[in-house]
């Protein structure tokens, strides 16, 4: 089975549409993956996600390894059966989670040694174990274990992390036992264009099913993030999908698609929904603001999601201020609909070779007012 096929390309930029092929189905790209870190997208059911148009979800190796455990999930039929989702699943390797818990972890040549944030127990996550866990889960797309660094970082730290990531990637390939599950290498290199290019070239030479751009959205300026995408992307094989990890805002998605990125994930739509921040065609709104307490209109007049078709801003504000559980569900439905619809519209624009017109319209709408 082919991993990826390009179906359309913009004549004005690097944006492209395609299809990612997996054991559990085909994913049209560019695509956004709702984040289901612990085998659930918070407040939503798999039926909700299908209804919103989600085609692929993201889970996390680190969290599922710690709780409930990959062997338990294997015994229960794998991650798809465990969480009741029949579409593709991509799992992050856990490298970013170890990085984010730096006070509890240390990085060695063999792997990452860390204490569980759940119970304080000591663990060593090696490249081999990362692959073993993901194969037990049955992940359609598995990620190599990588080592992340903060921004800013000195050249010595960048060189160390990039070299280690390449060596770990080679070990992940050697540990692989289920070739039907896709394995992606993760490009590092910090914010150094020389090391970004080198990392991408080294991973491309190893021959993965796809490639991810890691270490982005870690506090760097947006212009620098996009520069790193532009630096690394041309070094990766054109016949393989490219995934920008943890990216990001609607603007990030549009700009990275314009630069040839195919897959995205980010906690923003779900986390911001729980914090009362809603994405719209004209920008973001904070639903708890007093200006909405008697507003009878929908969150976004241009939106066709269940939330906007049935409920007013005034009602959503009431739910949020009252801390009703329904607030989190309705807000999440709206935000994920916005992100998934944005991706659908980009795919359609690329197929019509009208991506730059779409891009201009996207920014013009955001200059409007709620």
Automatic annotation (TrEMBL):
It catalyses: 7-aminomethyl-7-carbaguanine + guanosine(34) in tRNA = 7-aminomethyl-7-carbaguanosine(34) in tRNA + guanine. It comes from Dissulfurirhabdus thermomarina. Its EC number is 2.4.2.29. Residues 246-252, 270-274 are annotated as: RNA binding. This is Queuine tRNA-ribosyltransferase. Zn(2+) binds at residues 303, 305, 308, 334. Belongs to the queuine tRNA-ribosyltransferase family. Binds 1 zinc ion per subunit.
């Amino acid at each position: 089975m082919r991993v990826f096929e390009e179906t359309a390309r913009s004549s004005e930029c690097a944006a492209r549409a395609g299809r990612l092929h997996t054991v559990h189905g085909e994913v049209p790209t560019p695509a956004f993956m709702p984040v289901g870190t612990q085998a659930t997208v918070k407040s939503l059911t798999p039926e909700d996600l299908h209804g919103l148009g989600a085609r692929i979800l993201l889970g996390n190796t680190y969290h599922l390894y710690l709780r409930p455990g990959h062997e338990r999930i294997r015994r229960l039929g794998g991650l798809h059966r465990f969480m009741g989702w029949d579409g593709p699943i991509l799992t992050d390797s856990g490298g970013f989670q170890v990085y984010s818990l730096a006070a509890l972890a240390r990085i060695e040549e063999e792997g990452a040694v860390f204490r569980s944030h759940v119970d304080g127990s000591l663990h060593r996550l090696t490249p081999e174990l990362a692959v073993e866990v993901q194969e037990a889960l049955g992940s359609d797309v598995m990620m190599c274990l990588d080592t992340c660094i903060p921004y800013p970082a000195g050249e010595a730290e960048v060189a160390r992390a990039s070299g280690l990531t390449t060596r770990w990637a080679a070990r992940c390939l050697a540990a692989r036992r289920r070739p039907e599950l896709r394995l992606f290498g993760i490009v590092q290199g910090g914010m150094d264009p020389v090391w970004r290019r080198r990392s991408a070239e080294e991973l491309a030479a190893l021959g993965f099913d796809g490639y991810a751009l890691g270490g982005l959205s870690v506090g760097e300026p947006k212009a620098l993030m996009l520069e790193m995408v532009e630096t690394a992307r041309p070094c990766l094989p054109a016949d393989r999908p490219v995934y920008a990890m943890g990216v990001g805002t609607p603007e990030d998605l549009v700009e990275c698609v314009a630069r040839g990125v195919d897959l995205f994930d980010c906690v923003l739509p779900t986390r911001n929904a729980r914090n009362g921040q809603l994405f719209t065609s004209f920008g973001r709104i904070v639903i708890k603001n007093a200006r909405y307490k008697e507003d009878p209109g929908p969150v976004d007049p241009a939106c066709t999601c269940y939330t906007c078709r049935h409920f007013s801003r005034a009602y959503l504000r009431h739910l949020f201020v009252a801390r009703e559980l329904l607030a989190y569900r309705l807000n999440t439905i709206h935000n994920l609909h916005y992100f998934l619809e944005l991706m659908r519209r980009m795919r359609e624009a690329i197929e019509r070779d009208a991506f730059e017109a779409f891009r201009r319209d996207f920014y013009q709408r955001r200059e409007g007012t709620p």
